[in-house]
Write a structure and sequence with these properties.
alpha/beta, 2-enoyl-CoA Hydratase, Chain A, domain 1, seven-stranded mixed beta sheet, four-stranded mixed beta sheet, 40% helix, globular, binds ligand L6WJOLX4, lipid metabolism, mitochondrion, Enoyl-CoA_hydra/iso, delta(3)-delta(2)-enoyl-CoA isomerase activity, transit peptide
C-alpha cells in the first residue's frame, strides 16, 4: 500500500478508498480527486480537508425544490443554514454567559465540522443568542480543582476549537453582540472579519493577566496577526478589555454598527467575501495563517503539558478561585 497524501482525509470525495491522486507514488489508473487540487502551491497547507468550492452554493440540483433554510440545534449552539446563500449562522445560547465549557467546545467543533462537510455551506456567521454577551471566554470552573486528565481533555478541546476556526476554509464572520473577554475574544479574532455592536458597555480583549494567568502563544499569535506587535504587546500585558469604540480604533474589530443592524451588515459583508472564487481566497487565507497554525500543530502535546503544569500550580489555582469569587460577589 502506498502512503496517502497528507491532504487526504474524510473531506475527500473518494474517502475512505483513496483515489490515484490521493495515493503517493501510485501507478493505478488516475481518477481525479478534486480534494487534492493541483493548484495548491507546495508548502501551502489546505485549511480544511474539504474540497474547494467555487460558487457551489449557487447550484441547485435540477428538479429539487429550493431548500431555503435548515436548522439544527443540539444544546448550546443553534445552527441555521440558508442553502440559497450558502451562509450558516451559529448562535451561542449557553446561559448565563456562553462560557466555553468542555461540552460547549465539543458541540461547537461538531457543528462546525458538519457545516464544513456540507457542500451547500460556504460561510459562517458566529453570534450570540444571549443578550449583552458574545462569550465570557473559557469556563473557569473547567480549570479549577479538576484532575490532570480533565485539564488535558479540556485543553485539547480548546486547541481543537481554535484550529478549526482559524484554519477554516469557509468565510468566518464574527457578529459580536456583547462582551467578549479572553476565549470569547479569541473566537472573534480567529474569524476573517469582526463586526461589533456600537455600545461602549460591551468590551473585548485578551484579559488573561487580570486573572493571573498567561495567554498561550497561539492566542498571542492570533492577536498579533490582527492588530500588530505593539498594540498586542501592550494590550496583553495589561489584560485590557477594550470598550467597543476603542476596539475599533485599535483594529481589534473591523467595524461597529447599531445593534439592530448587526445581522444585516454581517450578511452584506459575507456576500462581499463570497463574491470571490473560493479556491483563490482559501489558498490566500491558508498562506497567511499556515505558520501560526503549524506552530500549534507541531507543539500540541507540549502545549497540553504546559497547560497542565501551569494550571495545576497552587498559586494559579488560588488566583482562579479568587477571580471566580470576585465574579460571584459582583453578580450578587
Ligand atoms: C511560560 C508559561 C506559559 C504557560 C501558558 C500555558 C498555559 C496557559 C494557561 C492558561 C490559559 C488560559 C487562557 C484562558 C482564557 C479564558 O478565556 S479565561 C476566562 C476569562 N473570562 C473572563 O474573565 C470573564 C469573566 N466574566 C465576566 O467578566 C462577566 O461575567 C461578563 C462576561 C462580563 C458578564 O457579566 P454579567 O452579565 O454581569 O454576568 P455575571 O458576571 O453576573 O456572571 C453570571 C454568572 O456566570 C459566571 N461566569 C462568568 N464568566 C464565567 C467564566 N468565564 N467561566 C465560568 N463562569 C463564569 C459568574 O460567576 C456568574 O455565576 P453565578 O451566577 O454567580 O453563579
Amino acid at each position: 500500500m502506498f502512503p496517502v497524501s497528507p491532504n487526504y482525509g474524510s473531506g475527500c470525495p473518494c474517502f475512505p478508498t483513496p483515489c490515484a491522486q490521493a495515493v503517493l507514488g501510485s501507478t493505478s489508473t488516475p481518477v481525479p480527486c478534486p480534494a487534492l487540487p493541483a493548484c495548491v502551491p507546495p508548502g501551502v497547507l489546505p485549511l480544511s480537508r474539504r474540497p474547494p468550492a467555487w460558487g457551489r452554493a449557487a447550484r441547485q440540483p435540477p428538479g429539487l425544490p429550493l431548500a431555503l433554510a435548515r436548522a439544527f440545534s443540539n444544546n448550546k449552539i443553534l445552527v441555521e443554514l440558508d442553502e440559497s446563500s450558502g451562509v450558516a449562522t451559529m448562535k451561542f445560547k449557553s446561559p448565563p454567559v456562553n462560557s466555553l465549557s468542555l461540552d460547549f467546545l465539543t458541540e461547537f467543533c461538531i457543528s462546525l465540522e458538519k457545516l464544513e462537510n456540507n457542500r451547500a455551506c460556504r460561510g459562517v456567521i458566529l453570534t450570540s443568542a444571549i443578550p449583552k454577551i458574545f462569550s465570557s471566554g473559557l469556563d473557569i470552573t473547567e480549570m479549577c480543582g479538576k484532575s490532570t486528565e480533565h485539564y488535558a481533555e479540556f485543553w485539547r478541546a480548546v486547541q481543537e476549537m481554535w484550529l478549526r476556526v482559524y484554519g477554516c476554509n469557509m468565510v468566518m464572520i464574527a457578529a459580536v453582540n456583547g462582551s467578549s473577554p479572553a476565549g470569547g475574544c479569541l473566537i472573534a479574532l480567529s474569524c476573517d472579519y469582526r463586526i461589533m455592536v456600537d455600545n461602549p458597555k460591551f468590551s473585548i480583549g485578551l484579559n488573561e493577566t487580570q486573572l493571573g494567568i498567561v495567554a498561550p502563544f497561539w492566542f498571542k499569535d492570533t492577536f498579533v496577526n490582527v492588530v500588530g506587535q505593539r498594540i498586542a504587546e501592550r494590550s496583553l500585558q495589561l489584560g485590557a478589555l477594550h470598550p467597543a469604540p476603542e476596539a475599533l480604533k485599535l483594529g481589534v474589530v473591523d467595524e461597529l454598527v447599531p445593534e439592530e443592524k448587526l445581522q444585516e451588515r454581517a450578511a452584506a459583508v459575507m456576500a462581499q467575501w463570497l463574491a470571490l472564487p473560493d479556491h483563490a481566497r482559501q489558498i490566500t487565507k491558508s498562506m497567511m495563517r499556515k505558520t501560526v497554525l503549524d506552530r500549534l500543530i507541531s507543539h500540541r502535546e507540549e502545549d497540553i503539558q504546559h497547560f497542565i503544569s501551569f494550571t495545576s500550580k497552587e498559586s494559579i489555582q488560588k488566583s482562579l478561585r479568587m477571580y471566580m469569587e470576585m465574579l460571584r460577589k459582583k453578580s450578587g
